[in-house]
Specification:
The protein has 166 residues and is of the alpha+beta class. It has four helices and seven strands. The chain has a single domain, classed as Inhibitor of vertebrate lysozyme, Ivy.
């Protein structure tokens, strides 16, 4: 009996995974080409934040215009690939502590998590609060004591995201 339940669960998992895989285009891993590059490096005609999949993921989660706001932040660290997620962090030149963002997007273009921070409340954010958005996540938190808002690199992103979801 236990073996048949296990087999049924395995079949259910496999068929669901195959159905999801069938929905993905052949170039589902195309965003992984940005790993190691700066967010503003152009690859195949697009910088990371100009890529249609990244724009769609960010704007669907945070509202229209959010991807444009992030793309206008012009200082960034190299994009890091962690498992299937690409993590990019950016900030406004000469005002990194005032306007910044960090995003984790799967190689296929699905949003994993997004962090937004604006001291002045740009794009409808609560001024001075860190806004975390993701699957079943839409939360404002106080910025870190040392200031700055969103994480500035992949390691900080993973630590901060873990704290927010727990």
């Amino acid at each position: 009996m236990k073996l048949s339940k296990l087999a049924s669960l395995l079949c259910l998992f496999c068929s669901t995974s195959l159905a999801q895989a069938a929905d993905l285009p052949a170039s589902a891993d195309e965003l992984s080409v940005y790993a190691g590059k700066y967010p503003f490096d152009v690859v195949d005609g697009f910088s990371f934040f100009e890529h249609p999949k990244v724009i769609a993921a960010i704007d669907a989660a945070a509202g229209p215009g959010t991807a444009d706001w992030i793309e206008d932040l012009d200082v960034g660290t190299p994009i890091k690939l962690q498992e299937d997620g690409l993590i990019a962090a950016v900030c406004e030149a000469h005002n990194c502590g005032g306007n910044n963002a960090a995003v984790a997007v799967s190689a296929s273009g699905r949003l994993i998590a997004l962090c937004l921070f604006s001291k002045s409340g740009d794009v409808g954010m609560v001024a001075g609060q860190v806004h975390w958005i993701g699957l079943n996540l839409d939360r404002y938190v106080e910025p870190p004591e040392d200031g700055g808002g969103c994480p500035r690199d992949a390691d900080e992103f993973l630590e901060a995201y873990t704290r927010v979801i727990h």
